[in-house]
Design brief:
By secondary structure, the chain is an alpha+beta fold. About 20% of the residues lie in helices and about 30% in strands.
Length: about 375
């Protein structure tokens, strides 16, 4: 079986979004078990980091991001998106407000277009967005022992999802609600990345690679931009409403679509977890079709091997596909029977959405 992302840790993968960092540290499944039972640390320093200082930082970002940040307290954070005029997802970032700066970290390769957009939207606002990737590097600790590891390494332990606090004079620790039972991102000075990695392993975290992190992200049903999304994806399809999109705020591009789908209808697709019956065959890859009775009904996203569940994948499938449908993920030699994990499938409510219900009531009154 071809193992997604399985490469030598000293010479990372030949292709893919994580090819700049180690895919594993010798035993991917043992690294996953550490994430499940204790803690592991992953080098995610290929993520782009943007700094937004300036007195208008919160009010300005509030106008262009999907999340409500106009009154975001210091030492807190969230996830957020940038949408196009039709409400389709262009950018995703994790956000931390620490001191006098908002920090955004985003997917590898996504920083240039995101920063370009921010620069174009500055106008007269008192903000100075900049590429801070040479300043800070992301390390992620995952597992139930995350707080103990942070404390033993001499790092602060923020309390609550996305809580973010300063790490020394030039760094951040952000508590994360995913991908495991507990997790934290450390944005450390890039020059000190290796020293911090060793410090965290000495504190009890097992050294791990991106394969283990991705397996737990898939298990947690957390989508990844440009892997689990395509050019048509809207936030409702992949579970970003709430975590990255605030439904009651306006004044951002694409807000009309967000509100319309929430109030009048249901998104055309849903993100699900697929169990793949691939045996010893080659696994599907990102972008492969998901078919039912020979007709395409979805798109394969992240494909990974989970230490307990085996071969699994995230997929965007049409909302009309039932949970018990017999599916095929992939094509040709990569085709594998696939079944939707029932725990990942949220049935549609029988009652109509609020806006549609109001229309119905209005029609009955007429």
């Amino acid at each position: 079986m071809t193992v997604p992302g399985y490469t030598d840790p000293e010479t990372p993968g030949a292709a893919g979004p994580d090819d700049a960092v180690p895919a594993h540290r010798g035993d991917p499944f043992a690294e996953q078990r550490a994430m499940a039972r204790s803690a592991a640390v992953v080098d995610r320093s290929h993520r782009g980091v943007i700094a937004v200082p300036g007195e208008d930082r919160l009010s300005w970002l509030h106008l262009i991001l999907t999340q409500h940040v106009s009154e975001l307290p210091s030492d807190s954070g969230s996830e957020t998106l940038v949408l196009d005029v039709n409400g389709r997802v262009l950018h995703h970032a994790v956000l931390s407000h620490v001191g006098e700066t908002v920090w955004l970290d985003t997917e590898p390769g996504e920083l240039p277009p995101l920063l370009d957009y921010l620069e174009k939207m500055r106008f007269w606002s008192k903000v100075e967005p900049r590429d801070a990737s040479d300043e800070l590097a992301v390390l992620s600790v995952v597992g139930p022992d995350t707080p103990a590891v942070l404390a033993a390494a001499g790092a602060p332990v923020p309390d609550g999802a996305y809580a973010s606090v300063a790490l020394g004079e030039a760094g951040i620790v952000r508590r994360m609600p995913w991908p495991g039972q507990d997790a934290a991102d450390l944005l450390v000075p890039r020059a000190e990345k290796q020293a911090w990695f060793e410090r965290l392993t000495a504190a009890g975290a097992r050294a791990a690679g991106t394969m283990a992190f991705e397996a737990f992200r898939v298990e947690a049903l957390r989508p990844r931009l440009a892997v689990d999304t395509d050019e048509r994806t809207i936030p409702h399809e992949v579970g970003w409403i709430g975590s990255a999109v605030h439904l009651t705020k306006g004044c951002y591009r694409g807000q009309e679509t967000v509100a319309r789908v929430a109030n009048l209808g249901r998104p055309p697709r849903r993100l699900v977890l697929l169990h793949l019956d691939a045996g010893d065959e080659e696994l599907p890859v990102t972008g492969d079709p998901v078919t039912r009775d020979g007709k395409t009904v979805g798109r394969v996203g992240t494909v990974t091997l989970h230490h307990e569940s085996g071969a699994v994948a995230l997929a965007l499938v049409k909302r009309s596909v039932p949970q018990d449908a017999e599916l095929i993920a992939g094509v040709d030699e990569r085709a594998a029977p696939a079944a939707i994990d029932p725990d990942s499938y949220v049935p549609d409510e029988t009652a109509p959405p609020p806006g549609r219900a109001a229309q119905i009531r209005g029609g009955l009154r007429g």
